[in-house]
Amino acid sequence: MQKIERIPQMETGLKNRWQYYVYDALIAVAGSLIITGMIYFSHLYPHISDIVIINLIWIMVLAIWRSRYAAIIASIAAFLFFDYFLLPPLFTLALADPAQWVTLFIFLVTAIITSWLAGSIRRSGEEARQNAHELRILYELMRVFNNTNDFDQQLDIIALSTIRVFSSLGVTECVLLAPDKTGRLQVRADAPIRVDEFQPTDEELRNATSVFKSGTQTIIKDANEPHSLVHYIPLKSGSHIFCILYLRILNGVPWLEDEELMHHALVNAAPQAEFFRTFLDQISSLIERSMLREKLAS
C-alpha cells in the first residue's frame, strides 16, 4: 500500500469553471480600480501623462499568475476606469479631446497583446508541468506493477492505483471482473480495501456481462444512491476483450457523468479526459501482458 501512495493523483482545480471565471473577473476589476484610485487620489495625472502604462504591470502579473482571461478583463477595466475617473470631463465616458481616444485605444491594444503573449507563456509552462505530472503517474504505476509477478497482486495494484489517481475526479470504487473457465465474470480485484470482498448485484453482473459481449462502454446511473453512477469499461486488445473495469463515480466531474460529454471531451482533446483514456490503455496493456505470461507459465 505504501508503494501505491507514491503514485501521484490527478490535479483538478475548480470543478465549476464559471466560479473560476467569476473569481478572475473580480480580481481583475478590483485591481484595476485600486490602481486607478491611487492615481486619482495622488494626482499623478496629468502631471505624468503616460501614467496609464502602470496598469500594464498589473495586467502582466494577472496573465502569469491567474489567466489570459483575467488579464484581458483587467485591460478593458483599466481603459474604462482611466477614461471615467481621470480624463476630462470627469465621471463620464465622453472625452473633451478626441485625440485622447487614440491614446486610450493604443493602450488597450497594447495591453491585450501583452496579456495574450504573457498568457501563452504561462499556458505553455502549465502544459509542460501537467505532461510531466502525467508521465510520472504512468511511470510510478508501471514501477509498482512490475515489482511483483503475481497476477492477482498486479490486478490489486491496478484497482488501488485507479482509485488513487482518479479519486479527485469522483472515482470512489474500482473493480476488475474477468471471465472464469466457464465464461462467467468473476471479481478478480477491487478497491478501496475493505473487510469483505466486493460482491456485484445481479443487475450489475448482467450489465457487466452485456458490456463484455458487446465491447461498448456503458454508463448507468444508480437509482439507489443520488449523484452516483457506474462506468462499465471493456479492457481489450483489438477486438479481444479480457476484462471489465467497473468504476463507481460519486459527484464526479461533468465529463465523467455523461457519455456525450465524455465523447465531446475526447474529441476536443480535453487534458483530463485524454489522460483518462491513456491510463485505461496503459492498464489494458499491462493486464494483457500479465495474462499472456500467466498462460505461458501454465
From TrEMBL:
Gene Ontology CC terms, in alphabetical order: plasma membrane
Mode of membrane association: Multi-pass membrane protein
InterPro entries in alphabetical order: GAF-like_dom_sf, Histidine_kinase_KdpD, KdpD_sf, KdpD_TM
Transmembrane segments: 21-41, 47-65, 72-95, 101-119
Highest taxon listed in the record's lineage: Bacteria
GO molecular function: ATP binding; phosphorelay sensor kinase activity
Keywords, comma-separated and alphabetical: ATP-binding, Kinase, Membrane, Nucleotide-binding, Phosphoprotein, Transferase, Transmembrane, Transmembrane helix, Two-component regulatory system
Signal peptide span: none
Keyword Nucleus: no
Domain Sensor protein KdpD transmembrane: 26-130
Subcellular location field: Membrane
Record's protein name: Sensor protein KdpD transmembrane domain-containing protein
Organism: Dictyobacter kobayashii
